[in-house]
Amino acid sequence: MPYQTFYRFYDLVMGDRSQVATYLCGLIERYKPGAKSILEIACGTGGILGFLSDSYEVAGLDRSREMLSIARQKLPHVHFYRQDMRKFRLASRVDVVICVFDSINHLVKFRDWQKVFRHVAAHLKDDGLFIFDVNTIGKLRRLTEESAWVRRFGRDEVMVRVTGGQRDIFEWQIRIFEREKNRNYKLREETIPELAVGMKRILLALRAHFKKIDVLDPEGRRPSDQSERLYFVCKRRQ
To answer: What is the DSSP letter of 121?
Structure first.
C-alpha cells in the first residue's frame, strides 16, 4: 500500500491546496449548482475537504489508516471511511464525488479504474457529478527526463525522482532523510507507482456510466495527453 512512510511528510510536500479547492468549487458551481453533499475518494489527509466543508456537507474515504488518522485529527467534524475506492459501499448517495491529486493514477491496472467509475456512479444521485484529475502520459514521461528534486522540511530532507515508463507505469521514488537527535540521518524510502492512461481510453470507459463528460486542462490550454494535468467532469447516467 502506498504512503506507508511518506504519509507524515505528505502535507508538507503538497503545500497549500487552496487553489485546487477554489478550482473545484468553480467546477461544482458551473456543472452542479445547488449541490449540497460531496464525497472525496482517496481523500488522504483531508487537505481539500478542509476547504470544502465550509460550503458543503463533506465526507472522505481512503484505505490508508495512517492518512485517515491525520485527516481525523485535522477535521474531527467530518465523517471518514476506511475503504478501498475500487469497491467501496456507503449507505447513502451524494451530489458530487471528487478524486484529485492524481490519486486514480496510483491504480496500476486499468480495470481498477473501471471499477472506480462503476462504484462512483452507483453512489451518485441522479445527475450527480464526478470530478477527477490525472497525471498525463506526457507529463510523466517529461518527469523521467528531469533530475531528482530535493526539499528541506525543518530538519528533514525529501528527495523525489520519477522513473520508468514501460507499459506506461511510472515510479515516484521517494527518499526521506530524517534527522535524528544525534545529528545522524535515518534514511526512509518508498516507491509509489502510477499508471498513465490516454485521454481517449479514459473517455471510452467513462461513457459506460456517465452521459456527459468534459475534459479540461486547468491551465486553459486545449486538453491532450501532453497537458500537465487533466480534469474529467462527468454527469451520471439516470
So the answer is: H
